Amino acid sequence: MIYYLKKYFKTGCLLVFILSILSVGIWGVIFIQGKKEIQRQTIAFGAHTAQAATHKIDSVLSNISRTAQQFADSLSHRNFTKEEIEQHLKKVADTQPYILGVTVAYLPYQFNPKQRLYAPFYSKKEDRILQTGELYDYTDRTRWNYSAWVFNPIEKDIFWAEPGYGPAAQAVVTEYGIPFYDTKDPSKKIGVVDITFSLQGFNKLLNTLKLGKTGYAMLVSKEGHILSHPREDYLLSLKSMNDVSEETDDPRYKQAVKKLLNKETGYVEYLNPLLNRTSIVFYQPIPTTKWSIAVNIIKDEIEPDFEYSYKREIILSIFILFALISGSILLFKLYKAERIWIIAAEITFLLLVEIGFIWFRHQQQPMFDYASDETVISDVNGINTFINQTNGESEILHEDKPVYIPTGIYVRNIEFKDGRLIGLNGSIWQKLDTVLHKDVEPGVSFPDLSTDAEAFNMEEVYDRIEDGHRVIGWNFRLNILNKVDYKLYPFDRKDLKVNLRHHTVGKNIFLVPDADAYESLIPSTDPGINKSIPLVGWDFLGSYFSYEYKNLNTNFGLQHYQRQRNLPELSFNIILSRKIIGALIAHILPLLIIQLMLFGVIVIFSKTQVEISGYNTFGVINSCAAFFFVIVISHIDLRNTLEIEMVTYLEYIYFIVYIYVLLVTVNALLFSSAKHYAFVDYNNNYIPKLIFWPLFMLASILITLVLFY
Question: For a designed S-S bond to 429, which of 57, 326, 473, 597 qualifies (C-beta 3.0 to 4.6 A apart)?
Fold first, then answer.
C-alpha cells in the first residue's frame, strides 16, 4: 500500500513539475509578448496622436494658405479701392479663428502714384484698421526685422516666417506671406498679402489634444524656434529646440531634437530628469510648411505597465513556486518517508517567500494611479495645459471666460483623529492680478470638511500689493473627512486629499497652483509640506497638486450656473506609506509566536509522552484558552487603533490563528478519545504535526492573493 502511495505521489509530482514548467514557459512568453503589445499600442497611440496633431495643424495652415492665395489672386486681377481692401481684410480674418490679423502691403507708389506706402492691417483683437506704413517703414531693408515679412514673399513667392514680435499686432506672432501682381503686368510683383497668427492660437489648438495627464505637443519652425508650447515663457523668449535640448543630459533626447529639426519622422524614449519618469517624444514634419511637430507623452500615463506587470508577475511566480516544489521533490527524492518533513519545511519556506514577494512588489506601486481620471500637476507645463484645455472647453460651451487664481498651500502639521477624520493646520495664500482680478474677491472653500463645530478656522495674516499682484494669506486649521482604505493594513497607504474651491459659487473661477511659490511641483520633492512633521508609523512618499472633475447634481438655485458638470476641482494630495516594521513587531510577530506555541503543544502532546511532559488534554485546552484571550486582546487593540469598520488584511491572519486554536483544541480531544481516528492516531499524531505549517502558510497566501491581486 505504501509502495503504491509513494509511486502515485512521485507520478503526481512529475506531472505537476511538467505542467508547471510548461506554464512558466507559456505564461512567460505571454507576459513578454503582452509587454511588447502594450509597448506597440503605446507607440501606435503616440504616432496616431502626432499624426492627428499634424493633420489638425496642416489643415489650418492649408486653409490659411488657400485663403491668402485667393485674396492675392483677386488683387492681381483687378484694382481694389481702399474701402474694398479694408472690407476684404476683415472678411479674410473672420474665415479662420486662429488669425490675429491680415495685411495688404503695397510696394512704394504701387497702390497710388501720389502715396508712397499703403499697408492696411486689420487687427482682429481691436476690430479696426491700422496703417502699418504710419508705424514704420516696412520697405527699409536696413531694418530687416521690420521688412522681412514683405521682401521674403516677394523674393521667394511664398514664405512662412519665423516667430517674432509683431509691432502692429503687439504680440509674438508668426506670419504667412504671398505676393500679388500688377493687373497690367502679371510678372510684376507689387505687394504682399500677409496673414498674422498668434502663437497662443496654436497653443489653444494643440492643447485640445488628450495626451495623458501631463503630456503636451510642441510646434517648431523651420529654424527650430518654438511656435507652440505649454510654457508661455518659451514663446515670449523665442526659445529654440536646441536651447530646450540643453536642459537635459540625455543623449537620446538631443538626438530626437536633431531629427526633429531635420524634418524626420520617428520617436524616442528618454528619462525626464525633472520628473524621473520615462517620456516618449514623437516627431514628424508638417507637409504644408517646413515646420515640425513634437508630441511629448509621459509613458506610464498611457501605459499601465505596473498594473500589467504586477498581476502577471504574481501568476508567473505561482507557476515557478509549483515547479520548485515538485522539481525539488523529484530531484532530491523527498518522496521517501524519512524525508517527508523536508517537503513540509520546503513548502512552508517557499510559500513564505512567495508572500514576501507579493508584499515587495505591492510596495513598489507608483505614487498615484496614472490610469485614473485625476490630472496630476507636476510642473508649469501641466498648469498651462490645464488652463488651455479649460479655455477651449469654455469656448465650446459658450461660458464666460475662465478666471484663474494662483493658490498655494503649506501644511505644517497633520493629526489622525480617527479612521476617517484628519486634522491639518498650515498656511494658504492667493495672488490676484490687480488688473485682471480687480472684480474678483479672494477666498477658498473646503468641500470635504467634517460636520463638527471645530472643523474649520481661517485667520487672515497678511494682505499686501507686490509686483502688480494682491497677495493675501491665511493661517488655517481644519478637520477633513478623508476616504482611507485600510483593507491592506499594514501594507496600506494614505492619500490625504485637501480639495480646494473658490468660495464664489456659479462663476467660472478656478484655482491653479502658485508654481512661483515652490522650488518645484514634482511630487517626490514634497511641495507644500513641512517635512519635519512628527508622524508616528508613517513615511512621506510625496505631495502634489491635481485636478479631479466633479459632476454636481444641482445648480444651487442659480439659473445660469456654469460648470455644473465636469467641474475641475484643485486638490492638494499628501501620500503617506505605513512603516511596516511597527505593525510586524506589534501584531504579526506575536501571532507568529503563538503559532509556534500551538505547534509546540501538538509536538509535546502524545499518548506515549504524557507522563514525561506532564501535558494532558486538559492542559492543552487551558493553553488554547489562554492563547485565545491573548489573541482577542491583541485584535481588539488593533481595531481600536484603526477605528474602522472594514476587515483588514492583518485581521484575516488573526482569523486563521483563531481557527488554529480551535483545531488544536479539537485535535487534543480526538487524540485523547477512546475511539480511534486514523488521522490523529497514525504514528502518534504525525499527520497534524506534518501539515501544521504548510497549511497555515497556504491559508495565508490564499488570503494574500485574494486581497493583493
Answer: 473
